[in-house]
């Protein structure tokens, strides 16, 4: 039995406290990190003296100017986009067109949600992976041996008429702010999908015959009907940030993730040499990353990259991840147009049910799920 397991079973009172989340733990007043949150030395964020945990401070994520993408510079920007997806699996989008007040309201209402009394927040606690709204802590609070320093609110966004009645009723403006933001994020996502498909050579483009246009529209329609999940992450300030993580290394399930963050840094991505790179928050921008489904769909050309979140001792941090993909029941496989003799199929078929079965059955570590879909 692992030390974490024995601790869990030995001390039900402590365990019950940890299950209530880190915000609650902080409110009860702690000055040091409980052992449940302490990572083994090799997994801690700031290991000095070499190895995989040294970060590169001079790194800047590629920037995609969305306004330019929609203009005459589109071919050059598509090139940049495709390089970013191949090399980093991540880019920042500026001039994305989502109004500043929509973004501000989303961040603002998220902060106020986590400031509500625990009793109010806990109404939405659920361990049902398919619940339309789910408040929780850590990564997988029923399975994680070591807990991470994060609380979250997950909001399923699609189809809106089915899910909205379950969303929190307080703060009173949460639903309105979150619906508005989620619609704007979906609109941007669709434009980015169009760009991604075009960059992979899968859309014929704007000057084409009617039948080609119909094929393109059908391809995009499937994305329009796809799934959307918003995860509001709250990382309270932490008494010993060098011993824990806000989120462990993981890749995102899905096609693309659009990440909105406040001005506090914390996100790191892993480069191909295994080095952790800080993503500096750029005001008014969104971070976009390739998810497992896009890696599979592109037959491995675009990379779903490991990322993690550091916490800090002075500031709490809020982020809102909007995760988009195909409809839940759709089988995900490499696009047939990207598979040929020179570039054989590299992934098995997968679907959402397979993923749920996978995450429910094990402690989700790194990108195991994607690894499990690779063909030998
Ligand atoms: C996520 C994620 C990063 C962050 O929600 O999947 O990676 O900065 N979030 O909160
Ligand atoms: Ni992520």
Automatic annotation (TrEMBL):
Ranges where the Fe2OG dioxygenase domain occurs = 225-326
Pfam families, per the entry? 2OG-FeII_Oxy, DIOX_N
Q: Which domain of life is it from?
A: Eukaryota
For the keyword Phosphoprotein, the answer is no
Keyword list, A-Z: Cytoplasm, Iron, Metal-binding, Nucleus, Oxidoreductase
Q: Name one GO cellular component term.
A: cytoplasm
Q: Is tRNA-binding tagged as a keyword?
A: no
Gene Ontology MF terms in the entry: metal ion binding; oxidoreductase activity
- Localization: Cytoplasm; Nucleus
Give the similarity note: Belongs to the iron/ascorbate-dependent oxidoreductase family.
Its biological function?
A: Involved in the regulation of shoot development and salicylic acid (SA) homeostasis.
- Protein name in the entry: Protein DMR6-LIKE OXYGENASE 2-like isoform X2
Source species: Nelumbo nucifera (Sacred lotus)
User: What gene is behind this protein?
Assistant: LOC104604595
């Amino acid at each position: 039995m692992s030390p974490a397991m024995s601790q869990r079973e030995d001390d039900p009172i402590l365990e019950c406290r940890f299950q209530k989340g880190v915000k609650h733990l902080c409110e009860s007043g702690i000055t040091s990190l409980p052992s449940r949150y302490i990572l083994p030395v090799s997994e801690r964020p700031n290991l000095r003296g070499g190895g995989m945990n040294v970060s590169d401070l001079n790194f800047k994520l590629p920037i995609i100017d969305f306004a330019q993408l929609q203009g005459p510079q589109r071919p050059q920007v598509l090139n940049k986009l495709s390089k970013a997806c191949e090399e980093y699996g991540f880019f920042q989008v500026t001039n994305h067109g989502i109004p500043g007040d929509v973004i501000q309201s989303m961040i603002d209402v998220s902060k106020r949600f986590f400031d509500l009394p625990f009793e109010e927040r806990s109404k939405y606690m659920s361990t049902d992976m398919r619940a339309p709204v789910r408040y929780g802590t850590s990564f997988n609070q029923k399975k994680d041996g070591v807990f991470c320093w994060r609380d979250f609110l997950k909001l399923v966004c699609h189809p809106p008429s089915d899910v909205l009645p379950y969303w929190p009723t307080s703060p009173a403006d949460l639903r309105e702010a979150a619906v508005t933001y989620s619609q704007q994020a979906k609109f941007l996502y669709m434009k980015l999908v169009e760009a991604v498909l075009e960059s992979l050579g899968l859309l014929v483009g704007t000057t084409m015959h009617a039948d080609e246009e119909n094929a393109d529209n059908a391809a995009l329609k499937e994305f329009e009907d796809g799934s959307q999940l918003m995860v509001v992450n709250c990382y309270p300030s932490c008494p010993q940030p060098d011993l824990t993580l806000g989120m462990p290394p993981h890749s995102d399930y899905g096609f693309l993730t659009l990440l909105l963050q406040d001005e506090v840094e914390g996100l790191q991505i892993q480069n191909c040499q295994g080095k952790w790179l800080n993503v500096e928050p750029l005001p008014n921008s969104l971070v976009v990353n390739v998810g497992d489904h896009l890696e599979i769909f592109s037959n491995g050309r675009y990379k779903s990259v490991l990322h993690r979140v550091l916490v800090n001792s002075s500031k709490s941090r809020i982020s809102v991840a909007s995760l988009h993909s195909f409809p839940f029941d759709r089988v995900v496989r490499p696009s047939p147009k990207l598979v040929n003799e020179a570039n054989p199929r590299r992934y098995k078929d997968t679907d959402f049910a397979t993923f749920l079965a996978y995450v429910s059955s094990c402690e989700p570590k790194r990108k195991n799920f994607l690894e499990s879909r690779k063909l030998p």
